[in-house]
Each structure stands twice: as C-alpha cells, then as structure tokens.
Amino acid sequence: MKKLHNKSAVPNVSQGWKNDCSALPFSRKKAEALTELSESSRPQQLVDLLGRKQIRVRELTGNPILHWPISLSPLDARGLKTGPSYESWHKAQVGRTGLSGNFFGIKSGRHHPVHSALEARLRASFDMCPYVLDIRTQYPSWDKAEYERYFLQGRKFPKNRVMTIDFMLTLLLPGETCVQYHGVSGKPRRLMDEPAVISRHAREVLQLGEWGCTHEVLDEHAVSYCEYANYCLLKSWLLWTDIGRCSAQSAEFAGLVGRSSITGHLDRVLTVLGRRLGHSLEQAYRLFAVAAFLGYLQLDYRFRLQPSMPLCLNPAWKEALNVRER
C-alpha cells in the first residue's frame, strides 16, 4: 500500500468546511458570470465525454507573455495552498511500474514529485508554458457530498477516499481577468479504454467540475522525448539566472532573433546577435532561455535544440512577429 503524504491536505472535522470555498461569492463560477469576455479572445475549447467545456492546454495558441515574478493567491478555490507552500499528497517513491523522481519547478520554486517518465515530460512542458502560472503535482481531490456526510456524523474523513490528480495547473488565459484551474491526468494510450480508467477519469471530471475546474487526459504522445530534451537544455541555461532582471533584455533579444536572417548553427547565431547588443555568448544563451521561458520567443520543439545544430523557430510565431513589424 502506498504511503500517503501531507495528511493535513484534507481538512478534518474540526476544520469544518473552511477550506472548501468553491460555493462562495467571487469564486471561479461566480467570476465567470461577472467577467465580460469577447468570444474571439477565448482559446479554442472542446467538450469532454460528460458534456463539459474544457481546455486542451497543449493546443493553446497565441503569443502569451509570462509576467515575472508570478503573483498567486496563497489559497486556491478549495482552500489548498499554492506556489512554494503547496505539498503534494503523494511523495515520489519506488513503484512496480514507472520511474519516479523529484524535479525542481522554476515557477513554483519547489520540487515536483512525479511517478513516471510520462509525468516527467508533461511537467517539463508545463514549466515552460507561459499560460501556466503554477504546477501542483499529486493534487488531492475528494467528493464534497461524501465529505459533508462524514462531517455531519462527526467522523474523520478517511484518507483512502482521497483521489489524487496528477497535475493541477493554474492558468491565465488571454482575455481573462482571473485564473483557471485545470486538472491533467497522464495515462498511457494502451490503458485509455480500460473500464477502470474510464471510470476513474469520469470521477475526476465530476469532482473537479464541482468547483469550476476543467480537466483533460494526456498520453505519452503529448510530449515527445525530443521536446523534453529541449526543455531540459533550456532549463540548464536558466540556472543561476535572475529572470526578472533579464526580462526586458530578453524581450529585445527575442525580437532580434526573430527578425534575423543569419544562418548556421545556434552557437553562431547567438554569438553574432549577442555581440550586436554587447552581450557575451554566455549571456546570450541566458537571454535566449529567458525569452523562451517567458514567451517572448517561441521555438519549434519538433526539432532538437543544440548549440551545434540550426535554430528552428515556431513558424507561426515568426510570421506574427513579421506582421507586427510591418
């Protein structure tokens, strides 16, 4: 049996319903009615098996910019902590399947426990996605009505009734004035059609939908190993970097990279462009990574990113940049 972590994540009976704020005014559901948004500014949304509109985080398009440092509410709509204060319900531990590990999150400033290579690749993509403000792995979820019955009976809610969501993302989408909580489950494609898996995902959708949270399932084909390797390399160039201090310079450098017609391998491109702005090659790599992290620069992650290989930019991003420059 797996050992559970963070036993205080689910409120006990003495805490009552203080930690579940989903029914209070100005929660996510109320904000949807108060916020006026043009349909043209919304990202494409799909409908899941239960008829709820949901977001496909890997299919979000546009040119989002992540503002640094990230500002988060200390608690989410259910009263659970966010950012560095959050504690995952399960620790990374040895299992019969999958490779567990702890990966440091740039945005949250803490380690994220994951239980498989699939989850590790998904986590890396979320950490480099400008739409994502916060990543919380092994997020605890429980049935609200069932919890209320235990509370009214004066009984402690059993830990084995807590279900964990692989990822709880805090998103800030274009045109919206408040965050969107989005649950993501990672599952191998070969298991998708198993009755137990279908039932599990249906329960996740129902529980998260109670407080206005969307949900989706991603398989091992969502993030390729090539893309994952690119994220790891970019993260290595971000080490010991003051992202806030480099933000303005990275935006300027990204524009220069996008407009440049210089050919050759990445090392040559960054050497020439960095010299134009008075930066060393090391600083050019740092600004390049910061620009990709904040969204000022969009790469084509279908191709390997290496100093000795050509630089491949996102064609749609480069075209949009050229249109703005005209």
Describe the structure in brief.
With 326 residues, the protein is an alpha+beta fold. It contains nine helices and eight strands. β6 and β7 form a beta hairpin.
Question: Which features characterize this protein?
Answer:
14% strand, 326 residues, disordered N terminus, elongated, 4-stranded mixed beta sheet
Provide an overview of this structure.
Helix content is about 35%, strand content about 15%. Helix 4 (about 195-210) links the parallel strand 7 and strand 8. The protein is elongated, with a radius of gyration of 21 Å. The strands form 3 sheets. Strands 5-6-7-8 form a 4-stranded mixed beta sheet, with helices on both faces. Mean pLDDT is about 85; it is low at about 1-25 and about 30-45. The termini are far apart. The relative contact order is 0.13. Helix 6 (about 245-260) packs across helix 8 (about 280-295). By secondary structure, it is α+β, with helices and mostly antiparallel strands. It has helices spanning about 30-35, 115-125, 145-150, 195-210, 225-235, 245-260, 265-275, 280-295, 315-325; strands at about 45, 55, 100-105, 110-115, 130-140, 165-170, 180-185, 215-220. The longest helix is centred in the last third of the chain and has 17 residues, at about 245-260.
What is the count of helical runs? 9
Q: Low-confidence parts, pLDDT < 50 over ≥5 residues? A: 1-27, 29-47
- Could you tell me the number of beta strands? 8
| Termini separation | 62 Å
Secondary-structure content class: alpha+beta
Instruction: Kindly state the percentage of residues in helix.
Output: 25-40%
Strand content: 5-15%
| Mean of all residue-level pLDDT scores | 83
Strand order of the largest sheet: 5-6-7-8
Element-by-element helix/strand order:
HEEEEHEHEEHEHHHHH
Tertiary shape? elongated
The protein's oligomeric status is: single chain
